[in-house]
Design a protein that fits this description.
This protein is an alpha+beta fold. It has a single domain, classed as Ribosomal Protein L22, Chain A, CATH 3.90.470.20. The strands form three sheets. A five-stranded mixed beta sheet has the order 1-10-2-6-5, with helices on one face. Strand 5 and strand 6 form a beta hairpin. The chain is globular. The two termini are 28 Å apart.
């Protein structure tokens, strides 16, 4: 698998077979430029977020997702339509008549968006919380093999290893379209699993149902 450095996208993105495009971004910004492109249900979902900061981050993230997808679909951002499965995972409606697949994840004020064709993917980003009591979460949600990996990790690296294991599990479950609950301990196999650097203090992982041959990483500039 070939992996590029983070770079600016020049021109129209072109997806090859087995290739994934990753976009990283901060979510700080004015919501006014993104609200007009969101659908009624997205705006209603934003209004249900009582925390103003979370509402702003949601609007910016969804607006930028639409901007990115519009480059591949060659239509305006506001004309993109989504459908959702039972756990809320979004995908393009059949109206778009294409095999474009995407997934997104955000943590704090940063986000990552993955785009590919014809294969299921899941991506997860998490900001490392130095105060998180991760051992309790590990006992509750990680399977036996994952807990063994964590136990064998040297103490100074345990917290970061927990986040690697957590984002790996989360990305596999998102790839499969299932939710992350205590009952979701049943392993979901991934054809490819890749940990990647996003920003200092964050951990991120992407999972693909089939083999990933190349990952191109782009800085979002909208």
């Amino acid at each position: 698998m070939t992996v590029s450095i983070w770079r600016q996208l020049n021109g129209t993105p072109r997806l090859q077979d087995g290739e994934i495009h990753l976009y990283r971004m901060g979510l700080a910004g004015e919501t006014s430029q993104y609200q007009p492109v969101l659908s009624a249900d997205e705006l209603a979902r934003a209004e249900r977020l009582l925390d103003l900061t979370k509402r702003q981050l949601f609007i910016v993230c969804r607006g930028r997702l639409r901007q990115i997808l519009s480059q591949y679909l060659k239509i305006s951002a506001q004309d993109i339509t989504f459908r959702y499965n039972d756990t809320g995972k979004p995908s393009l409606t059949l109206d778009h008549h294409c095999d474009l697949v995407f997934n997104l994840s955000h943590s704090a004020d940063c986000a990552v968006i993955a785009v590919t064709r014809g294969t299921d993917i899941g991506v997860d980003i998490e900001k490392i919380d130095p105060a998180l009591e991760f051992h309790k979460l590990a006992e509750r949600f990680l399977d036996r093999d994952e807990q063994l990996v964590l136990q064998r990790t040297p103490a100074p690296r345990k917290r970061r290893m927990f986040y690697r294991l957590w984002t790996a599990k989360e990305s596999r479950l998102k790839m499969a379209g299932t939710g992350f609950t205590q009952s979701s301990s049943q392993e979901v196999a991934a054809g490819s699993l890749f940990h990647f650097y996003v920003f200092p203090g964050f951990v991120a992982t992407i999972a693909g149902s089939e083999e990933i041959t190349a990952i191109k990483k782009y800085e979002f500039s909208g």
